Every structure is written in structure tokens, then in C-alpha cells.
Amino acid sequence: MRFSWQEVPRPIVALAPMAGVTDASYRQLIKRMTPEAVVYTEFLSTDAIHYGAKKTMGMLHFDPVLERPFIVQIFGKEPAHFLSAAKVIEELGADGIDINMGCPAARVTSSCHGSALMRNPELACALVAATKDAVSIPVSVKTRLGWDTPDNLISFCTKLVEAGADALAVHGRTYTQKFSGAADWEPIYELKKSVGVPVIGNGDIFTARDAVEKIGNLDGVMVGRGTFGNPWLLRDIVDAFATGEIRSTLDRMSFTEKIPFIIEHCELAAEVKGERRGMLEMRKHLASYVKGIEGARELRSRLVRVESIAEVQTCLKPYLRSQ
Ligand SMILES: Cc1cc2nc3c(=O)[nH]c(=O)nc-3n(C[C@H](O)[C@H](O)[C@H](O)COP(=O)(O)O)c2cc1C
């Protein structure tokens, strides 16, 4: 059945798109724990997809059974490339396409992609319209509160919806804030009152309690950094919404109990990227998993040098007994 944002069970719980993080192995790990979650790729260049760049095309691979609904996030500024990239993505079997209008990185905004689109609503709408014209799967937008204030959030998003956007995810910070200060969800609640499409809130959800307290009138929550070293968080959030019971799986587990999951994550990374490359990319995750445990500093310094699963197992072996 075709995916529709209107029909995803509420509240929607989504894994945020994160460059260098939400590759197929990370998404699959999250989906094994939380089948209810909506997963996004990291942002992928429409120019690269248009020209068939090998590395980017490889990043479009996904598990067509486990990774559902599967949303591919794209960025760029050339409507013709959105059109051709969108067709490629639909043919690969993705459930939806999300357009990045929130990335604050200078290399992205300086060439009018990402957050810069908030200052160019005409181009932003042209990109949505071009993508909608190309495909029949839903097209959503992820954006921020605004460039330097949230004043234009409602007018900007209203135009995007008029151009065809089927859903919106909003990170509660402006472009100028980057990641500083606290995410402000109030403007997102106001936005929801003004548009007819699903609105997902994003920013600073680190516990199930955060999700329950922040969701307000929104259709769902999107979680990024809170999942680092805590792939159980989305499970806790889905359960909290369903039962009202606030739980932290992470806090209830000993490090020894986490080890099989850490190895599972390593195996997924090796499957998707090959063992050596997979382990190089796992290093940052391994550092997150050991945060807060006794002897973390020494263990971390060894884990950030691993090149094979066997090395990870050797590093973790003492913890199979001692904790
Ligand atoms: C390492 C990293 C990479 C990110 N990459 C993307 C991206 O590719 N596309 C995007 O829309 N947002 C990206 N973001 C922003 C997140 O999707 C999210 O909006 C932000 O982290 C706030 O949510 P959080 O407080 O739950 O982390 C990235 C964030 C981080 C930390």
C-alpha cells in the first residue's frame, strides 16, 4: 500500500536525518528495536543523484522489508535536478521524499541550499513543485524556525503547502542559532494551527519524558542526537505514548547487557559497508556507547582505533564479566 503521511499511526515517531550517522546500518538498528519508527536517510545531493554519482547512489541502498516507511532526504537548488533525482528515488522504492531546508552548514547555505531556502521562498516552492511533478510518492520538507527569527515560519510553510508539501518537520531553532540555546517548540505549535498537513516537531528530545512533554498539538516527534549511544530511545518514546509509562531502557541496562546490541550494530555496519570501513564509521558510535561507564576513557581510546569486529570484541571482553 502506498505510504501516506496522513495515515501513519499517531503520534509519528521519526529518526531525524543525520549526515554521517543515519546510514542503512543505523536505520536498520533503530528499526529492529522500533518497527514503528519512520526513518530518513541523511541528506543526499540532487545534483549527485542527477549525475548518478557512485557514492551517493550507494547511499540510497536500503532494506526494502525492514526499513519502512523509508524517506530519502535530498538537498539542492536546481529544480530540474530535483525532478530527475525524485524519479530515481521513487523507482528505487522509497516511500517518500523529504527536502532539506534547514541545514545551516556554510558550504550548503552559501550556495543557496538548505537553510538558505528559508530566505528564498520562491525557489523553495519551485523545488517542492518540481519534486511533486516528478513523483506520486509524498513530498515533505524539513526546515527550521526561520533565518534569524520565527516570524516568517507560518507564511513560509503555508507557501510550501500550497506548492504541494505533504508534511512538515520543524527543528525548533533558527539558522543563526545553529545548535545553540534550547529548541523552542512554541512556534511549531502555532504553525500546526495554521496548516492542514501533518507537522512533526524536532529538537532536544533526549528522553521519553521530553517527547511526551513536547508533543503538544503536533502529529509527531523527530529525534536525532538523543539516539547517540541510546538506540532504545525511540522504543521508549513509542511505548510512553502508547501506555503513559515513562521508561529509560538505557538506564535500566548494565553495560554488559548492552554488549550484544553493540556487536549487532557492528555487524550491521560491516554488512552494509564492509568490515573495515564499517568499523571506521562505527568508532563514533562506540565512543557514545561507553559514555558514563567506569573506565570509559581508556576503553574509548581503544575503541576509536578498531578496524575489525574481532577488535571490538577484544576491547569489550573484560566487561562481559565485570559489570
Ligand atoms: C551529526 C548531525 C548530522 C545532521 N545531518 C542532517 C541532515 O543530513 N539533514 C537534516 O535535515 N538535518 C540534519 N541534522 C539535524 C537533525 O536532523 C536535527 O534537526 C537536529 O539534530 C535537532 O534534533 P535533535 O536535538 O533531536 O538532535 C543533523 C544533525 C546532526 C547532529
Can you characterise this structure?
- The chain is an alpha/beta fold and 323 residues long.
- The chain has two domains: 5-248, Aldolase class I (TIM Barrel); 253-322, Non-ribosomal Peptide Synthetase Peptidyl Carrier Protein, Chain A, CATH 1.10.1200.
- The chain contains 15 helices and nine strands.
- The chain has helices spanning 24-33, 46-50, 54-58, 79-91, 106-109, 121-134, 153-163, 186-194, 208-214, 233-243, 249-252, 255-273, 275-289, 296-303, 309-322, and strands at 12-15, 38-40, 44-45, 70-75, 96-101, 139-144, 167-171, 199-202, 220-223.
- Strands 1-2-4-5-6-7-8-9 form an eight-stranded parallel barrel, surrounded by six helices.
- Helix 1 crosses helix 12 (255-273) and helix 4 (79-91) packs parallel to helix 6.
- The termini are far apart.
- The model has no long low-confidence stretch (mean pLDDT 96).
- Bound molecules: flavin mononucleotide.
- Flavin mononucleotide (FMN) binds at residues 16-21, 42-43, 73, 100, 102-103, 142, 171, 202-205, 223-226.
- Flavin mononucleotide is lined by residues 16-21, 42-43, 73, 100, 102-103, 142, 171, 202-205, 223-226.
